[in-house]
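Researcher: We plan to redesign the surface later, but first we want a full-length starting point. Tokens attached.
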């Protein structure tokens, strides 16, 4: 591999990326720059262009990552630290933003940059002071621990789960009772397909903090997605009954857990409680507005749902799931899928999410019905929890989830699967076209089942 800007591959790649950027073909420029960033991680120009493209595409996690890599190789660049700080701020990492801004103020900045940083600093300093108060007894390394914890959060968000787990374990070695790190450790374990460790981490929190909204919400999610809704139910009851919203991101975590149980009444109750709180503007997480919009829409409060989705998009313009839900509300009713809270990936365990992609790819590419039927059945054999969740996935899986499982219905004839498909075809979720396809598949399965029953009932023929 060549090194430096003078290498032909680098120069050619930069020229191609800049040409696409000049034509505002951001989606085409993005993979070129991603490949260059992996091949030439020390090239500042690559990171400079990549940050521009990520911003244009509203890929704010990737934008933050690009800013971080650029700042790592150019640590005294005030311009880079300035945009890094605001990337952290946008992605709700206030202490990392504060750290970046403090560093930026020691570097050369223009007057406008310095003014904007100084405007943002008071609120961030106040948040830092509030964070410090949570360390009881107070410790001198609270700032180091807090930054390490936020760093672990960013690693979770960008998919670096092994590193996130290490970061959280490092925090807990310094501060074994630090609840936020244990909650994030549970998420890292979950994403690494260690569901039992994720559940155990949450349960450990509840031993000392029985009203931990984060631990309760995560437990509801983990147990539900593992097909253990009966085990999740007591934790959901506790989650509903927490009345004092003292925890960070309390409202979001409460509605998130209840959304996995399809508890629209509970979510709307939380929404109504939030509206009466003082002040509601404390929420900066677009997920809260999206999830409450879903339940409001499903409870017939469409105008409020629209406002909630619009608020989500004001906070995060690139929030695709909110945008798609909002767009569906203006379609004719026969073309609507029904409001959905999560992507298909978020409805499945990480392993099941990976495996179902392979089945869908096979359905699209293979002409062998036998191969597809075997692969589909193997998927449900390996992930029985998906079969348990199937009615909810068909109801609230959105366009991707509903289409995926209706496609699979062509190749599966198990009674439970057919029953779920038949119920979906008779329901109000999904487009008319999808429900008609589901009805046809269910009818075909019934006919085949009757034929098999008739055949098996025939007396055996005479022996030769």
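Model: Full-length starting sequence:
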């Amino acid at each position: 591999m060549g090194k430096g800007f003078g290498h032909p591959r680098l120069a050619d790649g930069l020229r191609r990326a800049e040409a696409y950027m000049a034509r505002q073909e951001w989606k085409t420029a993005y993979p070129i720059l991603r490949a260059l960033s992996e091949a030439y991680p020390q090239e500042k120009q690559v990171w400079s262009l990549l940050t521009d493209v990520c911003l244009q595409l509203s890929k704010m996690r990737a934008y933050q990552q690009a800013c971080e890599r650029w700042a790592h190789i150019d640590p005294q660049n005030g311009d880079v630290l300035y945009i890094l700080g605001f990337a952290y701020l946008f992605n709700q990492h206030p202490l990392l933003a504060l750290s970046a801004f403090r560093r930026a103020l020691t570097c050369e900045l223009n007057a406008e940059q310095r003014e904007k940083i100084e405007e943002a600093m008071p609120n961030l300093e106040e948040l830092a002071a509030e964070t410090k108060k949570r360390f009881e007894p107070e410790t001198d390394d609270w700032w180091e621990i807090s930054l390490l914890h936020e760093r672990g959060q960013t690693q979770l968000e960008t998919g670096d789960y092994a590193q996130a787990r290490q970061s959280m374990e490092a925090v807990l070695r310094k501060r074994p009772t630090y609840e936020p790190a244990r909650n994030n450790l549970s998420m890292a374990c979950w994403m690494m397909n260690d569901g039992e460790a994720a559940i155990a981490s949450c349960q450990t929190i509840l031993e000392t903090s029985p009203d931990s909204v984060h631990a309760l919400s995560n437990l509801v999610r983990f147990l539900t997605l593992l097909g253990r809704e009966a085990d999740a139910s007591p934790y959901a009851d506790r989650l509903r009954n927490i009345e004092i919203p003292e925890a960070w991101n309390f409202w979001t975590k409460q509605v998130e857990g209840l959304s996995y149980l399809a508890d629209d009444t509970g979510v709307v109750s939380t929404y109504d409680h939030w509206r009466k709180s003082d002040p509601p503007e404390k929420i900066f997480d677009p997920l809260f507005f999206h999830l409450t919009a879903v339940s409001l829409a499903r409870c017939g409060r469409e105008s409020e749902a629209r406002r909630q989705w619009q608020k989500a998009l004001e906070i995060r313009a690139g929030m695709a799931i909110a945008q798609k839900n909002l767009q569906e509300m203006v379609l004719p009713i026969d073309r609507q899928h029904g409001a959905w809270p999560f992507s298909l990936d978020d409805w499945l365990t990480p392993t099941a999410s990976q495996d179902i992609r392979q089945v869908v790819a096979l359905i699209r590419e293979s002409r062998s019905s036998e191969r597809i039927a075997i692969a589909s059945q193997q998927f449900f054999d390996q992930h029985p929890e998906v079969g348990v969740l199937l009615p909810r996935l068909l109801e609230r899986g959105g366009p991707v989830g509903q289409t995926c499982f209706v496609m699979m219905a062509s190749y599966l004839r198990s009674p439970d699967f057919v029953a779920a498909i038949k119920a979906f075809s008779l329901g109000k979720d999904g487009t008319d076209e999808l429900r008609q396809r589901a009805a046809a598949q269910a009818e075909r399965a019934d006919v085949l089942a009757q034929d098999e029953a008739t055949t098996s009932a025939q007396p055996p023929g005479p022996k030769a």
